C-alpha cells in the first residue's frame, strides 16, 4: 500500500472526546480516493459510488500526524476499486481500514463512462 497524504491533527479536527472526529477522517479519505481516481482515470468527473464497512481500530489525538494509504484492487470497465488504510505516521498503528471504495468515471452528462484503463499508471510515465 502506498501512503500518499499526511494530515496533522488540529483542534478543529477533534470530537467532544478530544480525539479525531470520524467524519473528518472520512472526508479526507473520500477526497484522497477521488484525487487518486481522477489522476488514474484521467477524468475529473470521477465520483464515489460505494464505500464498504469502515473499521475503526484506534484513534488519533491533537498533534498526531496520520497518513492515508490507498491500493488499487480492481479496474472495472468504468470504475476503479481501492482499499484504504489510515495509520499514525509515528507509531504505524492502524487507525482505520476500508476494504473497498469504488470510484466511477462519468461523462459530461453524468452517465457512466468507460475509461479503458487496466493497470496503474504513474504521471511521470505519461510525460515521456
From TrEMBL:
Magnesium recorded as keyword? no
All copies of domain HotDog ACOT-type, residue ranges: 1-109
* Record organism: Mesonia profundi
Q: What is this protein called?
A: Hotdog domain-containing protein
Looking up CDD domains in the UniProt record yields: BFIT_BACH
Pfam families, sorted: 4HBT (PF03061)
Which keywords annotate this record? Hydrolase
Q: Which InterPro entries match?
A: Cytosol_ACT, HOTDOG_ACOT, HotDog_dom_sf, Thioestr_dom
| Family statement drawn from the similarity comment of this UniProt entry | Belongs to the acyl coenzyme A hydrolase family.
Question: What residue stretch is flagged as signal peptide?
Answer: none
Specify the superkingdom: Bacteria
Amino acid at each position: 500500500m502506498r501512503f500518499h497524504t499526511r494530515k496533522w491533527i488540529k483542534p478543529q479536527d477533534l470530537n467532544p472526546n478530544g480525539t479525531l472526529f470520524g467524519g473528518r477522517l472520512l472526508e479526507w479519505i473520500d477526497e484522497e480516493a477521488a484525487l487518486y481516481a481522477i489522476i488514474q482515470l484521467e477524468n475529473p468527473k470521477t465520483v464515489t459510488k460505494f464505500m464498504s464497512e469502515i473499521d475503526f481500530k484506534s484513534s488519533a489525538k491533537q498533534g498526531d500526524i496520520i497518513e492515508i494509504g490507498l491500493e488499487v484492487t480492481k479496474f472495472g470497465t468504468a470504475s476503479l476499486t481501492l482499499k484504504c488504510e489510515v495509520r499514525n505516521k509515528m507509531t504505524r498503528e492502524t487507525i482505520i481500514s476500508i476494504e473497498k471504495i469504488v470510484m466511477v468515471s462519468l461523462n459530461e452528462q453524468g452517465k457512466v463512462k468507460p475509461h479503458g484503463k487496466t493497470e496503474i499508471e504513474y504521471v511521470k510515465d505519461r510525460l515521456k
